[in-house]
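Table S2 (text version). Query chain:
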Amino acid sequence: MPASVAEKAIIFYLRIVMAWTFLYPGVRQVLSPDFSVAGFLSHTKTFHGLFSFFTTPGTVQITSVLVAYGHLLIGLSLLAGLMVRLGASLGALLMVLYWMAHMDWPYIENKTNLVVDQHLVYAGLLLYLAVGRAGHVWGVDAWVEQGRFARDYPRLKLLFS
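Corresponding structure-token output:
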């Protein structure tokens, strides 16, 4: 756990800006009846075989709902500081998938991003938040971990610690 107020403030800031990174698109996607992942995934090159499955007529609607609500729930998790270990880990996985989706090896999206782009930076930051117990820094995780729920269900305590 961070010792100083400055360290806590930085961790809190990083958690909140990453929450906004997921929360804003999540709200827009959930509220938009026209949202679909098909447009984003139609441009895959390096891993086209993997991502084309998610754009087939039978799966594109399911994938779109999972992405929209995934963004929303990850954002809410980070914002509240509740189950940050789970939310941040799933967010990191999502960022790596986004990184892979627009890869034209060795470039990512365009010729200015060689191998590394913002998605890998976000994934690293999210993993830091998950491992660093960021939900305990002015978040709900510390409160839940010490409460009756965590005592009654010790296996679930891992989500909050």
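Notes on Table S2: The longest strand covers residues 110-114. DSSP finds nine helices and three strands in the chain.
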